[in-house]
Amino acid sequence: MKLRSLLFVPADSEHKFAKASAIGADALILDLEDSVAPPRKALAREMVKALLSGPPRDWAFLVRINPLGSGLTLGDLAAIVRPGLDGILIPKASGMADIELISNYVDVLEVAAGVTPGHVKLLVVATETPAAMIGFASYATPNRRLIAMTWGAEDLGAALGALSNKEADGSWTFPYQVARAQCLFAAGAAGVMALDTLYGDFKDQEGLAASCRIARRDGFVGRIAIHPNQVATINECFTPSDADLAHARRVVAAFAAQPEAGTLGIDGKMYDMPHLIAAKRALASAGEDCT
């Protein structure tokens, strides 16, 4: 599943869903949690059910459910696990135990709904509670459904009683730099995609692009979008250039030609296994098979 850009859409707004469907995001996240007021949550579930039965699409259909402990999680899952659903975004998770629990629920619901077992994937917002910040080691034991991790600062800041999560220059304060880094490390340990959090100022395209370039440099492969105007910039920043892909193909081809070599010289520079892994990852992100 390609996940450069994931656009949030309130699950109770058919108009916004119709607009978002044509934006070009790799995935839409129909949100049953924060963007839906409590009196409209039941309606939002029914709307998601109806939208899931719509025509074929070229983007992944994801749903953010309400968190465990809200009393709404099972109702959300029972409503949305059906043909057409590609993935579930789990908010406010405290560690892999929450992922395993949701995964077990989905096992049963897929069978009941006639969905191919294992089709529905899981994504997690991994930094929204203080307990989550001390539970990252649990992600070293992978889950077969988990494909991506992202992070968030707002709920964590509220839980900690922080007055702000940003410095005067707009950069993250130290606790939230730690949260970002921990998410990146945990995703690596779990063998899943790391997705950067949203960029709040949807009118600042230059700032978004600069932030995306830093995220890609650090190892994130995609990003949450909070507004349709952000999608094109995110897609561009997380798509390897033609030059990047050409170079990656050369690295892969060179190692394939000398399978017993641990290091190789290419254009006067030395390359080893980490470079080969990075090259294969770049090609995979463009949909190329490099096995």
Automatic annotation (TrEMBL):
**Keyword terms, alphabetized:** Lyase, Magnesium, Metal-binding
Cofactor(s) listed in the protein's UniProt record: Mg(2+)
Q: Where does substrate bind?
A: R64, E128
Q: Which GO molecular function annotation, any one, does this entry have?
A: magnesium ion binding
**Matching Gene3D superfamilies, A to Z?**
Phosphoenolpyruvate-binding domains
GO biological process per UniProt: oxaloacetate metabolic process
A Pfam family name for this chain?
Answer: HpcH_HpaI
Which parts of the sequence bind Mg(2+)?
E128, D155
Domain HpcH/HpaI aldolase/citrate lyase residues, every copy: 4-228
The record's similarity note reads: Belongs to the HpcH/HpaI aldolase family.
**The name this protein goes by in its record:** Citrate lyase subunit beta / citryl-CoA lyase
Native species: Bradyrhizobium lablabi
